[in-house]
Specification:
binds pyridoxal-5'-phosphate, 39% helix, four-stranded antiparallel beta sheet, Aspartate Aminotransferase, domain 1
Length: 390
């Protein structure tokens, strides 16, 4: 029997080093609902394993044991049914790092990198700060769901300077889990136009409504040879500060190029606690992920019900992630006013939609990975503020 994790219990992060609660950004009377980590305590198995490691009393360079890759492959097989080989896996200090390695390995300065917008803000920086250019493939909001404009996608991929596509699946911030059919179309187009795929699957554990996450490489062996996948248990288990990520590159040449980039960036040493966490979480904590998913579905239902009684703010119903994309365009507020309204009137702090690109104007992204009571408080504050505004 697995333990039952109490997600109603708040990890009480205010006053700790938690960035989400940085008092310079989020005063005491404002509920922080921005950066993508949770307000839940980590699984007990992890805390116990870390305490035991602390008792060893030494933290010199660790060696690269095979268990790390085995744990990552085990999770992929057990959760998503993908037979990834442990040999395809290596450590990365964060899920963003393999994206950086891939951009540097598979494109040259002046080349273009395609991203589907609105997009996780560091995607723009990764491309532009490395002297590459962004090609946008805006997702289209149709009847409350974001859809891929495949014609536009092919135009972008067909540009001879486009060398890499940064795929984000599940997609932050729109909450889409792309279907195997959509992934197949993306994969075929990338092969046709010789574009390498970097697939950021950091949110892959958090997929709702009986859907299952599809690793891009699992769709077709030809896609597996033309991609590198980034994963990190951090979004699920609240371990972002431990640097727990990995990349999975089925093709040996791709792997070699990724490792070369990692070496060049002097980021090859596994952190003791990050590597330990990957092994414990991916081997022992599936039950926690299952229970959290169910809890989050309850939080999302609550937001949906509350917003159905509110004027001017609509939920883009997520298929994945605990990051809710709220369409506030009906309020008609310029973006700085919208953010001021959220923080000063509703007393909640979501992410500013505009930081995800121009398609995010009129939107905010709200993180609901917190105890139900916090979501209830946030929703009643928002409703009250909206009622007053009306
Ligand atoms: C899509 C996506 N990729 C990557 C990251 C960050 O990953 P890491 O902290 O492991 O670099 C986030 C965090 O919010 C994210 O949403």
């Amino acid at each position: 029997m697995h333990p039952v994790h109490d997600f109603d219990q708040d990890a009480n992060r205010r006053g700790t080093d938690a960035r989400k609660y940085d008092p310079a950004l989020c005063p005491e009377d404002v509920i922080p609902m921005w950066i993508a980590d949770t307000d839940f305590c980590c699984p007990k198995e992890l805390l116990d394993a870390m305490a035991e490691r602390v008792r060893q009393g030494h933290f010199g360079y660790p060696y690269n044991d095979a268990e790390f890759g085995q744990a990552v492959a085990h999770w992929q097989k057990e959760r998503f049914g993908w037979d990834a080989s442990p040999e395809w896996v290596d450590f990365a200090p964060g899920a963003v790092m393999p994206l950086l390695y891939g951009i540097r390995a598979f494109s040259a300065p002046g080349d273009k990198v395609l991203i589907q917008t609105p997009a996780y803000p560091p995607f723009y920086a990764l491309v532009e700060n490395n002297g590459r250019r962004v090609v946008r493939n805006p997702l289209k909001l149709i009847n409350g769901r974001y859809e891929i404009d495949f014609e536009d996608l092919e135009r972008g991929l067909a540009d001879l300077r486009t060398r890499v596509m940064l795929l984000c699946n599940p997609h932050n911030p729109t909450g889409r889990e792309f279907t195997p059919e959509e992934l197949r179309r993306i994969g075929e187009l990338c092969l046709k136009h010789h574009v390498f795929v970097l697939s950021d699957e950091i949110h892959g554990d958090i997929v709702y409504g009986g859907r299952k996450h599809t690793p891009f490489a699992a769709v077709d062996p030809r896609f597996a040879g033309n991609c590198c996948i980034a994963v990190n248990p951090s979004k699920t288990f609240n371990t972002a500060g431990l640097r727990t990520a990995a990349f999975i590159a089925p093709d040996p040449n791709v792997r070699a190029l990724m490792l070369e980039q990692r070496m060049n960036n002097k980021a090859f040493g596994r952190p003791v606690f990050g590597a330990l966490s990957v092994k414990v979480l991916y081997r022992q904590c599936g039950y926690y992920a299952d229970q959290m998913l169910e809890y989050l579905e309850g939080n999302i239902r609550l937001v949906e019900e509350s917003l159905s009684q509110c004027r001017g703010v609509r939920l883009v119903k997520p298929e994945a992630t605990y990051l809710l994309w709220l369409d506030c365009r009906e309020l008609g507020l310029p973006q700085p006013e919208l953010m001021r309204f959220m923080k000063e009137k509703a007393k909640i702090l979501p992410n500013d939609g505009e930081t995800f690109g121009r398609e995010g104007v009129g939107f905010v992204r709200m993180n609901v990975a917190c105890p139900r009571a916090t979501v209830e408080r946030a929703m009643s504050q928002l409703k009250r503020a909206l009622d007053k505004e009306a």
